[in-house]
Amino acid sequence: MNQFSLHREPLITELEIKVRLGQMVLELARDLRGRQLTVIGILRGSFMFTADLVRLLYINDIHPLIDFIFVTSYSGTKSSGEMRLLRDMSLDVNGRWVLIVDDILDTGRTLEYARNYIQDRGAAQIHTCVLLDKPSRRLADIQADYVGFKIEDVFVVGYGLDYNGRYRDLPYLGVLKEG
Ligand code: IMP
Ligand code: MG
Questions:
Q1: What is the pLDDT of residues 71-122, one digit of tens each?
Q2: Is residue 165 in some structural domain?
Q3: What is the tens place of the pLDDT at every residue in 141-165?
Q4: What residues flank ion ligand 2 with Cβ within 5 A?
């Protein structure tokens, strides 16, 4: 099995994340203020991003309901391609405006699955927001409405994103390199 270690230089620093989130929330606020909004984060990768995002929504006078679904397809650095819903949301999204939040849009299967699932639950409007986008890896026909950073095809960890459960705690985004 290949060994991976964390590259010394951050790909995206804590400060860069903060600045970009501030900009994204202005866009979100413009489109979503005044709506009966429910934020649904996709666990586990989006927990930090979702938490920072809703604090900024608060400052912009948006006070959503917040819930999470736990969707997974991953093991190691490879997607198995098969989606599983490991934990359902508790809130009823029927008739609500929903903002789906995920850490990264890679093949797109996770976000596509989550969007279809929430659509089937009767959401009135769905917007999607991801911190990172790797467009070169896309398999599903989906784009996010709000994207923090477009990145190359590298495996990133930190700020919620993991490699086999590790590195979620980093406050910045780093790259895993082989060896
Ligand atoms: P997708 O279904 O292929 O779009 O993958 C999305 C999910 O895979 C994300 O929510 C992440 O949890 C995980 N993922 C994809 N790329 C990376 C990465 O570079 N680092 C860590 N997790 C990743
Ligand atoms: Mg994820």
A1: 987 655 666 678 989 999 999 999 999 999 999 999 999 999 999 999 999 9
A2: no
A3: 999 999 999 999 999 999 999 999 9
A4: 45, 103
Edge-to-edge strands, sheet with 65-75: 78-87, 65-75, 37-43, 97-105, 125-133, 146-150
Q: Cα dist. 146→34, 129, 137, 150, 178 in Å?
A: 18, 5, 18, 11, 31
54 within a domain of the structure (yes/no): yes
**How many residues are present in the chain?**
179
Does residue 1 lie within any of the structural domains?
Answer: no
- Say how many domains are in the chain: 1
Range of the structural domain that residue 128 is part of:
14-154
Question: 102: part of which helix (H) or strand (E)?
Answer: strand 97-105
Single pTM value for the model: 0.94
**What's the CA dihedral at 132, 135, 139, 141 to 10 degrees?**
90
Q: Is the CB of 133 within 6 Å of ligand 1?
A: no
Chain centroid to CA 99: how far?
11
Q: Which is the catalytic residue, given 52, 106, 133, 169?
A: 106
**Cα of 104 from ligand 1 centre, angstroms:** 5
In a domain, 109, yes or no: yes
